[in-house]
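hey so u asked for the seq, here:
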Amino acid sequence: MQGIASNRQEWGKFEESAAQPPLIVHVIHHLGVGGLENGLINLINHIPPERYRHAIVCLKGYSDFRRRIIRENVEIVALKKREGHDFSLYLNLFKTLRRLKPDIVHTRNLGTMEGQVIAAVAGARVRVHGEHGRDIFDLYGKNRKYNLLRKAIRPFVNHFIAVSRDMESWLVNTVGATPTRINQIYNGVDSLRFHPRNGIGSGAERFFEDLPEGFFTENTFVIGSVGRMADVKDYPSLIRAFLMLLKKVPYAREQFRLLIVGEGKSRRQCGDMLREAGAEALAWFPGERADIPELMRAMDLFVLPSLGEGISNTILEAMATGLPVVATRVGGNVELVKEGLTGMLVPPGAPAALTEAILQYHRNPERIVKHGKAARQQIEASFSMEAMTKGYLQVYDKALRI
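ran it, structure tokens below
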């Protein structure tokens, strides 16, 4: 009798799945501005609705960033995790998964990996885990406690997704994941939304209603960056490099401008450093913005001073915008920035090296144009949204054996 009941239950699931596309529940820490979150929304927006349905479970909560989702009927659940060890979170996640009845549960990064165990207990058919990068507390993925946790949860994961070859290698060599259960998929970028501006220094591309007075001039050279102003991004090093430029180059205060788009706890520190140097008027920190493509088209050079990266969405967006990129030689940055072709790589935590790289571009405008064009071509050839979507669909389809 138990076997008959089980068969009936399985047949019921089959009938339900035949009536509508399979449901993927994406489990993340918080749905706000960030590279991981941006990649998730891009994926949801580009997967054909007849192929899969989606829901997002946020361990903490969500912001207005969710409005970038253009797909209809995407349920977003906030579990409102308390700080520290919140054991009620596991019960709430279990109840949510039992209610949603997902075909696939897709967790991302260490902070949600325990959700794999909950998903297995809740009866999720397929469990996928993605590694998108590491934070300041474990830049190189060598923390023994965290890796023991990853190894303990590893048997519950059916498939791993790594956003870079660096992360893929780490999953095999450190976490012990089976290579055949890993798919490496690069993030894609919307190359229609992010496109080069019409002509260097085009005034129309540099107009913003809230622009500080006198920020742009005819000869302005804008050093730009976009990202969370968190410790791992190391924006103080970019401030130090900018201040070195002001001391090193004659008439620098008439030419150089610094534009950093984003929020985070280092924003105040960066502002204080500029004020102490009397350079506050030469920088603009507009915070979180919805007009990032337009702001990128106002830049002449993109700089990312991170201490660690998975695959940087902002580097991809800058390349799609036709900007050369100066980035640190960490994580997936070396897979994106082609030295001497689309940009330059420098050691992390080295403001003097950042200064020198910026100066090389400032002194060679033709190199800016050449590297910017090559960067755009690289995006069109290897980092399209279509390629990313296809990669994820292959994983999901294979997992469900469709």
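Residues 1-12, 199-204 have pLDDT under 50 and may be disordered. The chain has two domains: 20-188+385-400, 203-382.
lmk if thats what u needed
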